[in-house]
Amino acid sequence: MKTTILLIGSLFAICILGSSILADDPVEEFVESVNTGWSTTNYSAILGAINDRLATNATDTLALGMKMSYYEWAVVDFDAAQQAASDFVAAVSNQYPEEFSQPCALVKYASTLASVHIDPTNYPGDQSRSSTNIVYVHSQFAEFPDLKQHIELYRRIAAAP
Helix axis angle, 61-69 relative to 26-39, nearest 10°? Predict the structure, then answer.
């Protein structure tokens, strides 16, 4: 009985300690802020959180990648998405060049987006989303699009020697 109580107490302490560490994790706070903006369709809050993070580190791969996704999914702006993709690819290349030997899907996509050239005569006109499009996108993505891939890559880069 004593062992069971000690075990339960230890597990409880680990859970409390773990949740307080997680709450202090700036990545988790950032992700939560972006997801809150996404779930409430407060796109200016999403961009604000991304830009705040980039203000402290202009080569933050998590924020740069999410900025690319922001301009693809929240506010459709091909030029801004392409610029964010270029910035993201440059940051990944500088911080973790090994990623390009076998790039993950996110890096492959960003590399492709960054290198796309659209003939000005075929440039997309109105890029905005209708309210029906917005509802559809949010029904398909409960959390910010590509979020797990961005976090996985960011943590892999952070853990690299």
Answer: 10
Tokens read off for 22: 């997680």
- How many domains does the structure of the chain reveal? 1
- Three-class SS string for the chain? CHHHHHHHHHHHHHHHHHHHHHHCCHHHHHHHHHHHHHHCCCHHHHHHHHHHHHHHCCCCHHHHHHHHHHHHHHCCCHHHHHHHHHHHHHHHHHHCHHHHCCCCHHHHHHHHHHHCCCCHHHCCCCCCCCHHHHHHHHHHCCCCCCHHHHHHHHHHHHHCC
Tokens at 154, concatenated: 């960011």
Domain of 41 in residue numbering reads as: 2-159
| Residue count of the chain | 161
Give the global pTM. Answer: 0.78
CA distance 157 to 161: 9
Q: Which residue has the tokens 């993070």?
A: 53
Q: What is the pLDDT of residues 62-84, one digit of tens each?
A: 999 999 999 999 988 888 999 99
